[in-house]
Structure formats: structure tokens, C-alpha cells
Amino acid sequence: MAEQTSEVFIPPHRLAGSRTASPRNAQTRMIAAVNPPTPAGPGSHIRIVSPGMPTLMHVPERGERAEAALRGLGFEVSYGRHAFGFSADGLAAGTPEEQAADIMEAFADASVDAILVSDAGGGSLKLLPLLDPAVIQANPKPFVGFCDTVFLHQYLADLGVASYSGCSLMFHLGNVPAPFPETTEYLARALSGVGPLVCGPVGDRAEPVASWHIPEIEGAPRVRDHASGWHWLRPGTGTGPLVGGELSLLPELVRRFGIRFDSALLWWDVTEEQAAPVDELFDALARETDLSLLAGMVVGANPRVTPEEWVRQVGAAFERHVPEAGYPVLVNADICHMTPSWTLPYAETAVLDSERGLILPRTAVDR
Amino acid sequence: MKSTEIAALYGSVLGAADVAEDDDFFEIGGSSFSALTLIAQLNTAAGSVVLRMRDVIRARTPRALAYIMETRLEGAEPSGGPR
């Protein structure tokens, strides 16, 4: 058995997985598909935890609007003990120990049916050594996160526990006067576990609430002034486990977990604060892992540029770094830092088809 | 906390010397990120959530923040603390 390091989170049962001869991908393993989680719906109990920034402490009224939206969907809502907390430097919603403890309590509490993050923003990587995989595996339940929680999603996937990416209490559900209906619809549809989950264009989008600390901005209705619309950079069909996250985080994800994306459907987006050129970010990921053997790629819309310009930039980066790839590539998809947006199962098998869109059958797989 | 103590905290968070009681946090180099640290330290000193980001946006000086903290700690103005 290969030696584990404290920096890499590879479950022992995965160390014997398939290998590749590619130097970049040496000693890495492919993504294994997970089964859909236990369905959650009206009457289910959602626990809010805060593994990222302390926005719930700073803008509790936004949390109250989001909670009302969840209750409107029929969910019961409770909060982790430290969900409204803050760290000494003010950048996180508590110490890593407090944040991890809330996650573990949510998994261990039999009355909790699903877990939703209040916000992301950073720090989830620090929580991984503080989690108890045995407790999580004994009490699997859907975990819903966003952006930086990608490390938690992959950690859970390696335990065979399904999760969802693309929704948070504050960012997605706290809008004035209410969240966009497409956002809640996709959240409810995903949590229901009913298949197939067909992801289509959601319509025009609104910018992220980047200035959430300014009441006049946070409390104003979001304006859907970013045009919707998909663009197929390359047509085709691909099937594989659907994984992904914010582009600048993916190289670290690859390194930490020792994974590669061969035969996977990889989605990615960029934050509204991402100033680095996409070519530079794409290059960083391509240097870390071979992107030529994916089953497909889904690129979320970029809040900073027009859809047309984003297609041009992504297309140029793609042609430069993986010109040989023959899989379908969808750009300006609705898994992004704008809203409304999808909630996507992480590591479940999906089909990307330029004729039919992005489809998740929600069927069990052999692990 | 006294406004002079808050002024010293401004200096500590921003690495600035000689911060006065009427200095604007953002005019002397503060940002939304450093404001998060400032508020965390003020709330820790107060022993509860007395201030939020919006307070530093609206009341940017040590003197104004000291007044808000004193008022809220006396219970005259609800802080809307964590549930």
C-alpha cells in the first residue's frame, strides 16, 4: 500500500485504484461515481452549518429571508451551534474545530435529513482532518455546499457519501424579496432525488451579492441583467461522474486528493472576484492533470464578462491547452457565481449531450 | 470600550500609528477584509456580537463605534444577536 501523507486525503480502499502512465497523472486515481443520496423534501429537516465566511453573523436578516424560503419549500430548519459565530481574525465563522464540530453534529443527529452551508468563501480544506469519516459513513445524508466547499464534496465522495454543489443559504436563498424561483426549483428537484434531473438554461442571470456588507446593496432586489444562453464549444455526448468547482481551486483539489478527471464530466466556473485570465487558470489545472481524457466539460457563466466574450476566452484557452480533446464542451452554463443557478449532485453519473443538455439519471451505481 | 481603545485597535489591525478618535477606518487604509478582523476583535472584547459589518460601514470612527457599543451593551439598542 502506498504511503499516506498528511497532505493527501486518499481513503485506503482507493489506493489500489487504476493508475495512469502519464507523468502528470502518476499515482492518481479516477473519480468514482457515487449513488444518489437519501431523498429530502417537504417535512425534511435541514441543518445550517457555516464552514466558510461569517456572513450569517453579519447579515442575519438575509439568513432569515433564506430560512423563510426553505420553510416555504416545506423544510424544517435548524442551525449548528456555531453557525452564527466568527473567528478571531473575522474571516471565518468560527475556529476550524467549531466549524467541523457543527458538521459532525449534523451528520450524527438522526433528526437531521440534510445539511446546507450558510456560505462558503474559504477554509473548508482545514476542516477535513477534523472530520470523522466513520460517523459520516454511518449516517450518510445530503450535504449541500458551494464554491470553496468543493473539498468537502470530494472528501464525502471518497467516503461514498453523496453531496450537492451550487447552493448556499446566504448567497442563493437570501435575496430580496425572495430567491429566484429557478434556484429553489433546482434545489428542491435535486434534493428530491427524483430522476432524471434535466438541467436546462435558467434564463437571464443576476450578479452575485459581492457587497453583502453594504445594506443598500444587500437589501436591494437582484436585477437579472446578464443575458442567459448556452454555447456548445464542441458538440457530442459524454457520460461520467459529474464533479467540479471554482477553477482556481481545482489544482489544489487534484493535488490534495490525488485524483484525475479521466472519464469524468468536469464543470468549473470563476468567481466575480477572479481577476486572473482564464488562460492562466486553465493552464494551472492542465499542468496539474491531463484534461484530454474527460467525458465532457461544463463551464459556468462568468459575471465579469459578456457571454460572447466568455465563449471567446474559454475557447482560446481550450484550444491552447487541450486541442486534441474530442469531448463535448458547454460554456455559459448555469452552475456559476450568478443566480439563478443549478444545484448539482457531486460525483453522480451524468450525461452531457449537445442535443439534450445535462442530464442526471439519479440511478444507483455499483461501487 | 473607550474610543481611545478602539482607535488603538484600528492601529493594530491596519498597522497604522497615531490613529485618532475621529479617523475614518476606510480613509486610513481599512478595507472590508480588515473590517472583518476589526469587528471580530471588538466583539470578542465585548463578549458578544455587538457590531456587524454594516456598523463599520456607517459609523467609521472609533468615537462612533464606541457610542454604538456602549448603547447596545446597555440594552438601549437591540443588536439582533445570534439565535
TrEMBL record, chain A:
Organism field = Actinospica durhamensis
Extract one GO molecular function annotation from the record.
hydrolase activity
Region annotation (Disordered) maps to 1-24
What's the family? Belongs to the peptidase S66 family.
Domain named LD-carboxypeptidase N-terminal: residues: 46-166
Q: Does the keyword Hydrolase apply?
A: yes
Which SUPFAM superfamilies does this UniProt record tie to the protein? Class I glutamine amidotransferase-like (SSF52317), LD-carboxypeptidase A C-terminal domain-like (SSF141986)
**UniProt protein name:** LD-carboxypeptidase
Q: Does Magnesium appear among the keywords?
A: no
Q: Boundaries of each LD-carboxypeptidase C-terminal domain copy?
A: 239-350
Q: Which Gene3D superfamilies match?
A: Class I glutamine amidotransferase-like, LD-carboxypeptidase A C-terminal domain-like
The record's keywords, sorted A to Z, are: Hydrolase
Q: Which domain of life is it from?
A: Bacteria
- InterPro entries in the cross-refs: Carboxypeptidase_A_C_sf, Class_I_gatase-like, LdcA_N, Peptidase_S66_N, Peptidase_S66C, S66_fam
Query: Which Pfam families does its entry note?
Result: Peptidase_S66, Peptidase_S66C
From TrEMBL, chain B:
Q: Which parts of the sequence belong to the Carrier domain?
A: 1-73
Q: Which InterPro entries match?
A: ACP-like_sf, PP-bd_ACP
Gene3D superfamilies named in the record: ACP-like
The protein's name is Acyl carrier protein
